Amino acid sequence: MVKAMPAAKAKPSSSEFPPRAERECVVLDSSAVLNDFAFDFSANAEYFVTQKIFLEFRDLRSRHLAENAMRNGLLSLREPSPESLGKVEALCAKKKLRASEADKSIVALALDFKSGEKNPKLVSDDFAVQNLCSSLGINFAPIIRGSIREN
Fold first, then answer.
1. How many angstroms from the chain centroid is the CA of residue 94?
2. Which residues contact 48 (CB under 8 A, 6 or more apart)?
3. How far is the C-alpha of 88 from the C-alpha of 133, rounded, in Å?
4. What is this structure's pTM?
5. 134 vs 22: CA distance, rounded Å
6. For 21-141, CATH number?
7. Which helix (H) or strand (E) holds 48?
8. Contact 40, 12 (CB under 8 A)
9. Residues 42-56 pLDDT 10s
10. Angle at 146 between CA 140 and CA 147, to 5 degrees
11. Is the predicted pLDDT of residue 2 greater than 80, yes or no?
12. Given CA atoms 131, 67, 69, 2 in this order, what sign does their dihedral have?
């Protein structure tokens, strides 16, 4: 017997979203979507990824979820400033952390938001990303693996 799929949710109207100033700023690592099969985009937050992270959504489920979130205005692609990217790369070298270019890009993006008027939370299971966030004073949250113990 084939199970019926639930109907797709209608795109929320702009009046259903809290004002942008009140929405939580969440920067996503691909692990947030790939590792958490129950992950869903909340209308109470603004979600951001870089192009490098978006390209890591290769499986059908995560790609579909991200594309739908973008279509519905819940997920945005942003690129970090060269200044923030330079700071993150210098910190990686100093701490001898192995971080992918995609990982560096999301930490740098969160640093850009932190330098502005937003207080971002970076969601990642990657310990290198968590270490970078801790060193830069960026809030982070793990998905499944837990968080770092030491910095």
1. 24
2. 25, 26, 27, 28, 75, 76, 77, 78, 109, 113, 120
3. 9
4. 0.81
5. 24
6. 3.40.50.1010
7. strand 45-49
8. no
9. 889 999 999 999 999
10. 45
11. no
12. negative
